C-alpha cells in the first residue's frame, strides 16, 4: 500500500459553501462539469472558500488547455488543490471517478500530504450515466483503494504513512452504511492481487495453499488441501500429468463457505491455479514466460471472492475448487501425443502441453460438480486467443445458461470489470474430435478461445448451469486505467461479489 488509509464520510451540501478542514499538509479534490457555467462555478468555489491560486494556471484550466489543475495554494488551506473537469458525454464511463481518484492517490505518494478532502459532486449531475446512486458513490471509494495498491520486493522500503481521507457527499448516509462492506471487498481484492503478483519462486502450489489457510483462519470457511498421494488415489490424472514434471507436487485446494445465516444460494467457483507455466515440452519463448507467474489469477479470483463473501457474511453457500500446479519440463513431462484418462473417466489426447489450463480445470470442474451447485463458474487465464479477440480490457464469457449470463453482464457493467459473451454453438464440437480419445485438448488455429471453452464443456455435468470466464486479458496488468497499469489486477472479485448480491434478489 502507498498509504495507511483512514476514511471518514461527512455530509456536504453542494449548493452552499464547503466546510473545509483547516489541516496542515492537506489536499483538496473537487470536480466540475465542463460547460458554460464552469467559469462561474469554479471561481465561486474558490472565492467562497478563500482559496488563492496562480491565475495563469487557473486560466488554462478554465479555457480548456488543462483537463486537470493541480497546484499549490498561495495562501490558506488546503496546501494542494486538485480540480478536475468532467464531460458527461457519450465518451464518459462509470469508471471516470474511480480512475481519477486512483490517479490522485498515486500522485500523492510524492507529495508531503497527510490529509485528503474529496468533494463528491451532486449525483443529479451524472444520474443519466449511472445505474443508481450506489454505483456513483462507490466508485470514489473503490478508486481510493484500487489506486493505493502496491507490490514490491525492493530491499529499501519506505514506511507507509497515514492518509486521513474525508469524503464529503450529499448522500452521506448511503456511504456510511456501506463503507465497511466496500472496504471488505477491496481488501479481498488486495489479497487476490497479492497472490497474482507473487513471483513463482515464492508462490508454489504448496505455498498458495498455506497462504489461503492462514487468511481463512477463524472464519466460516473450511479449507482442504489435497496432496499428490490422494490425487493419485482419486484419479486426478490430468492435474497430475500437467504438474508431474515439477519438483513441487500438485495440490487441489477446496474451500467451503457456509454463512452463519440461512443460505439462499449454492454456487461453485473453479479457478485455474497454474502457479507457473513454462508451456511444458511445447515450450513458450522467454517473452511468453515473463508474466506466467500470473497464470493462477483464476484461482486468486476464487479465493478473493470467497474471502469477500465471508467478511460480509453474504448468505450464499460457496464451494471453491482450485487445481494448483506448475507446468514445467523434465524427464517426467507429459508429452504431445499422450492419451490421459481424466477424473471424469473421459480420455483426452494431448496435442499441446501448453494447453494445460483446460486440462487441470477439467478435473477440477468434474470435482466441483459433485457438490451439485445450482451454478458453476470457472475463471481462467486460459487463451491468448481471447486477448486477440477482445484485447486486455474484457473477459470472454461462455455459457450453457443464458439467464445467468445476463445477470453477469449487469454486474460487469456495474463494476466496470467488463465481459463479452462469445458463442458456444455445436458447430465447434467437431473441432476437438480425436481419432484415439474422447476429446482432443486443442482445436485448429481459429476460434481458440471458443474451442478451449468447448473442451471444458465436456466435463460439466449435463444438468448443471455453467459459465466460463476467460480472464487472460484483464487479469494481468494493462494500461486501460491507472489502477491496472502497474500490477496484476485481481479481476473478477468485484464482479462476482456484485453478481452474488444480485442472485440473492432473484
Task: Give a written overview of the molecule.
The protein is an alpha/beta fold. The protein folds into two domains: 3-170, 3-Layer(aba) Sandwich (Leucine Aminopeptidase, subunit E, domain 1); 188-504, Aminopeptidase (3-Layer(aba) Sandwich). The chain is built from 15 helices and 18 strands. The strands form three sheets. Strands 7, 8, 9, 10, 11, 14, 15, 16 and 18 form a nine-stranded mixed β-sheet that branches. Strands 1-6-5-2-4-3 form a six-stranded mixed β-sheet. Helix 10 crosses helix 15 (493-504). The radius of gyration is 25 Å and the shape is elongated.
Give me a quick take on this structure.
This protein is 34% helix and 21% strand. It has 506 residues and is an alpha/beta fold.
Features:
Aminopeptidase; Leucine Aminopeptidase, subunit E, domain 1; nine-stranded mixed beta sheet; alpha/beta; 34% helix; 506 residues; 2 domains; single chain; six-stranded mixed beta sheet; 18 strands
